[in-house]
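Handout, section 4.2: multi-component inputs.
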Amino acid sequence: MTFSWTPHRFAGGALALDVANSVILRFDPARSVDRFAEPAQLNAFAKAAGEFSAERALFGTPSAVPKPNQASFVAMREAIDRYFRAFVKNEETSLFLASLLEAAAVMLRIGARGSLETETAHSALRLLSDTERKRIRICGNCGWLFIDRSKNRSRIWCDMTVCGNRVKAARHYHGRKDRLP
Ligand SMILES: [Zn+2]
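Output:
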């Protein structure tokens, strides 16, 4: 199956969350897919971020993560996901925050200016401000992290046109099935 970085895959609203969301269905290890496991997809992500990320005005098109930095970049991605997911769930986050700050520090130390790894680190640090952090949600369908920028803070889907509709369709389907004898 061919894969491309579509606008939907940048529904996080912040580069750091889009990076975290490169793992599909994290909550389901049997079906989970790491889009960065494929080097070509990791490289293509930087260019797509320049086109689709909500924060693209801040960084333009970041340069791809050079091979020697890729393992640390993926480690930072995991630290981003762990910390913000735990924060949304109101869990204990001190150690996760420490790991995130350490991972971001590594990237800022070794990453080139304007590269995907340094821009992602900056994005994660911006999200730590209380106004941003309190708007982060976990999508009720796919489990992605996203920023709820709606006026009444009522978004439950990362992307209404994808996840919202899928859930509606599933409800419709189950509703019909329930009525069968
Ligand atoms: Zn979703």
